[in-house]
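Same chain as my last thread, 655 residues:
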Amino acid sequence: MKLYQESQILVFVGETGSGKTTQIPQFVLYDDLPHLNNKMVACTQPRRVAAMSVAERVAKEMDVELGAEVGYSIRFEDKTSPSTILKYMTDGMLLREAMHDHDLSRYSTIILDEAHERTLATDILMGLLKEVVLRRKDLKLIIMSATLDAQKFQKYFHNAPLLAVPGRTHPVEVFFSAKSEGNYMDATLRTVFQIHSIEGEGDILVFLTGEEEIEEACRKIRAEAEDMQNEGTGGPLAVYPLYGTLAPAQQTKIFSKAPVNPTPGGRPGRKCIVSTNIAETSLTIDGIVYVVDPGFSKQKVYNPRIRVESLLVSPISKASAAQRAGRAGRTRPGKCFRLYTEVAHAHEMIDQTYPEILRSNLSSTVLELKKLGIDDLVHFDLMDPPAPETLMRALEELNYLACLDDEGELTALGILASQFPLDPTLAVMLITSPEFYCSNEILSLTALLSVPQIFVRPANMRKQADDMKNLFSHPDGDHLTMLNVFHAFNGEEAQQNPKQWCHDHFLSFRALQQATNVRNQLKRIMEREELELISTPFEHPKYYENIRRALVAGFFMQVAKRDGTSKTYTTIKDDQKVLLHPSTVLAQESDWLVYNEFVLTQKNYIRTVTAVKPEWLLVRFMQNHLSDQVLTLSRTLRQTTTISLHFKKEISKTR
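reply #2:
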């Protein structure tokens, strides 16, 4: 507290489990007493699940109601009140607040937690707060990290004082695989069953890469554990998944106590948590003694040349491996089973994970920075500046979307787009949708595109799931199919028992519920910004056509054209050969498509596609004054279709 009182900026290093996330904000709160000056303390988290669970825990510790003195704010959910004085929030939410209040004048102290994770929002916040503390001498800033790369943070923040606190950890015995595993999923399951049947009491934490993989692993572990219990080779085993999009009620189950074996002298009961890298640092779960680490995580990767951002399963860094192993020694000596060789760990793994800012599409970031009043993007003081090409691509994309003018200044559309917590493409589509008399439908579609996949396709029931999906399918493509699902979900029949209805129709109840919440939030922003909410009558012949035209208004840079009569398509903007993803419901072979996502596997796929007409693209390009793009597009069109005289005249004008 002495260092906090004497310094404006403090770098705090505390190992995972040292209590920094729950205790430091409380110490600051009781010392600072921000409510006396009508201010509050903010503590940022890189993940939504961490912001919610930590706020709940601190509220219990302080014996106050969650949402009163202690609250949280995450995208599409705000659980705070006028009496809130300690606010946990995602770093992205603090960034959005900074757009409207450049000096963040509501806060007396800002704590950036888990800064070592180096998310996109964290890096921008650090650059921003570095400037804010120079303008606001009354603002205190604490940077909290779990790794020993603290000297870099110290140097970046004007050689701020450093305080290191050891964690309360026990020794962890680390085991490596003797040889490389061919299938890490099989090896993971095999290891879990061996631990359950051989090792002493203690809970198991398994790291996997994503929701689908985790749910599949949970199903297999539950089935095998039941057989083991019946045979007497293992005690009762409670299995819980953990990932970012899991409902809060499901997430809290991971903190429940392990089951007890009712048979005297039988194998111990335990719980097994199967998690993404959320459990590396963001959450501390007591009782974990065994960690199973296959050595992979999903990471965002961006290629600016072909403008493709993908979530790829990648090897973790040595720093992540150390964090995972440390989870086992929280309550007593533990064991970590690494399903890769010691040689691979020493020579093939990088030391630290590359910061997200170096591997992301920066369109949303550039728009945020412009709204934050930062015009000189090249000299904005980031800890690790991104590649110039990535920055140029982002500026180019925003210019095409008419969010920035040719001088790089924010346009009226850009200012409006920055009000929405969305990718600029989705924001522009939503803002322009009233022109096509379908803003209600585009609002629903935007919400659906902002949540995880709504269709469920279990490995053992793929045929039934596909048949159910066909009930909702629209011949023109996937966007309209998703809209049909959403309309049906909100219909009278489904709402009688929505959970059962979703189960019967192989739909994700959680994703559709989330989409409804997102839609309500976006609707409030539209009403605040006085954007018209309008629909074409359903029986009108142009009902679906208007929606497709509105899609083009946002996704005109994500267009693909069919190569002759073959099954391959070429993306217009970046000239990439692609195939339609097998999940598409497009019933007719269309020459022109808009797509939502470019998927990189062994082949290049485009996913969530809808058929469009080429003349709609020309109108959109000309509206944005993209004369070079119009000429490129028109040359392609001349080879494939007859262009009306009107469009020929318009094109000749742009030359």
